[in-house]
Design brief:
globular; 197 residues; 80% helix; mainly alpha; single chain
């Protein structure tokens, strides 16, 4: 596989792992297992039956946990330590056949992308979980599931398109992060006291 499609698979799978790791691994693994995709580097390990089974079980647990507001927030907090390293490993695995320097750069980029996606997801879901009505949380969760599976399929078949898509989504994430920082600054800005008080 050439470097540009490999980059698309590496960064696409890393970004997706920050959204829904288990759906991403399950989708890519099934596509490889059925012979519909030819994943680069060492990502063919995702097609191993035990990897597919583990991803399916964990995805089923996440599917339920993701719909319950308090559980969802705790799940996201714990998965900060799962999704980010997994995204780094997926990106590095895609470049396993390249020289070690490239693998390390892919590891770092994959971890950063996964953190970006996970941070945006967790912040959005935390805001939705604070809402008293339950439907927005469920709809966001279902949208994330559809996004993870559909973009994972796109990653396997059109990795260069995914590379452009991820670039755009990272810009959206950065814009979202800038708004959060601005909001926090306003929240913690010292208030001026009125004259004569």
């Amino acid at each position: 596989m050439q470097w540009l499609p490999t980059l698309g698979v590496a960064l696409g799978s890393a970004w997706l792992s920050g959204i829904n790791l288990y759906a991403t691994v399950l989708t890519l693994g099934l596509l490889q297992r059925m012979g519909l995709a030819d994943l680069p580097g060492d990502l063919d390990v995702l097609a191993e039956p035990w990897v597919i089974a583990a991803a399916a079980v964990l995805y089923a647990i996440e599917f339920v946990a993701d719909k319950i507001p308090v559980v969802d927030s705790m799940w996201d907090a714990v998965h900060t330590f799962v999704r980010v390293p997994a995204g780094a490993v997926l990106a590095a695995s895609a470049f396993a056949s390249f020289e070690p320097t490239v693998v390390v750069i892919a590891l770092l980029a994959g971890g950063g992308l996964s953190l970006s996606a996970h941070g945006t997801k967790a912040a959005t879901r935390l805001a939705a979980n604070a809402s008293p009505e339950p439907i927005s949380n469920v709809l966001l969760s279902l949208a994330e599931d559809v996004l993870a599976v559909s973009v994972a399929v796109l990653t396997a078949f059109h990795p260069v398109v995914v590379l452009l898509l991820v670039g755009g989504l990272v810009l959206v994430s950065l814009s979202f992060a800038a708004r959060i920082v601005a909001g926090l600054r306003r929240l913690f800005r010292p208030r001026s006291t009125p004259a004569g008080a």
